[in-house]
């Protein structure tokens, strides 16, 4: 049973726009974005990265358009990309016009860097005529100096005001095919800015904590900001900004949405116990090996790797498939029921083999095909383990006796 999405606040209603084939806002699925790190002029290198991002879960990819060679690269990238392409524009109005000419599916303009009203309106008019949406991408680190001064800093109100002013220029030329972001590297500022933006605009919101940094801190900051807002029903598309391979951004975005129940699982969800003194196996090693092997299969399945059979199968009974270690053996289970006992060295192989069979035959068929003796074998291992280092390891019987004597 998936209770996550229904436990979140209802999604705030926004108008819908389309970035190429991907709808953003309204009742469209929340989409994942990332940005290439290659030179956009390097067409083959950029396309390779775009394909990797799409495979990791990106629905939309942004490329910088910072020079004419980049715009020329976009001419070739756009038709060969598996996902819509957005051109990132700072400072140069000519680059925005060149990107539109290249056929991109969307533009991102930074109001802090492209400041002349006549230039902003020129880009908006051109985008309007071509039916290309624009993201007003406000960034706390590059806020317009006048707004920064007026608000005494990059406050949430200042970020939203910057978006409002830009939107007003767009509306002057009859253009409203817009989504908005109000990013900051401070999670608290970003959350407050998006809350205010969601009260101020009905345009789709693109969520992100900017310059979140390397892993794991960047992931934590990104998740703290983005997940908080998603849980409040705010946000229509998102990007993690990590100082890492952008594939990590796409993967994180996708996993966040899947873990909140906001997108269907399309790949592996590996859960693993944190391990403790009871562990009968190196849980970290087995979990990593299982993750690598199962990721390659691209099967939408939740798999558990548990360190001991005493608690493992019960604690992970919600998982489709799992393995728990006990007495140099692995107990393979489906939804908490033991189906097979395998040698410890074969644990990962057994998991992969069973995952493949589940993908073809389904969970019920694989449960029906379980070894008749598996549950009894597993019970014997459990009993042995409890005897070795279970309650008796703490001299439980005597201690409980003493506790009871004290109580009387
Ligand atoms: S499953 Fe076993 S090894 Fe893992 S944390 Fe729970 S008790 Fe410890």
Keywords:
2 domains; elongated; alpha/beta; 408 residues; Sulfite Reductase Hemoprotein, domain 1; five-stranded mixed beta sheet; single chain; TIM Barrel; eight-stranded parallel beta sheet
Structure description:
This protein folds into two domains: 256 residues, TIM Barrel, CATH 3.20.20.20; 126 residues, Sulfite Reductase Hemoprotein, domain 1 (2-Layer Sandwich), CATH 3.30.413. The mean pLDDT is 93. The chain is α/β, with parallel strands linked by helices and 408 residues long. It is elongated. Helix 2 links the parallel strand 3 and strand 4. Iron/sulfur cluster binds next to helix 12.
Number of helices: 16
CATH fold topology of the largest domain? TIM Barrel
Structural class, from secondary structure content? alpha/beta
What's the overall average pLDDT, rounded? 93
Q: What count of structural domains? A: 2
The number of E-state strands comes to 15
The rounded distance between the terminal residues' Cα atoms is 46 Å
Radius of gyration: 26 Å
At the fourth CATH level, what is the homologous superfamily of the largest domain? Dihydropteroate synthase-like
Principal-axis shape equals elongated
What is the helical fraction, as a range of percent? 40-55%
Q: Report strand %.
A: 15-25%
- The CATH architecture designation of the largest domain is Alpha-Beta Barrel
Bound molecules: iron/sulfur cluster
| CATH class categorisation of the largest domain | Alpha Beta
Q: What does the largest sheet look like? A: 8 strands, parallel
Unreliable runs = none
What's the arrangement of strands in the largest beta sheet?
8-7-6-5-4-3-10-9
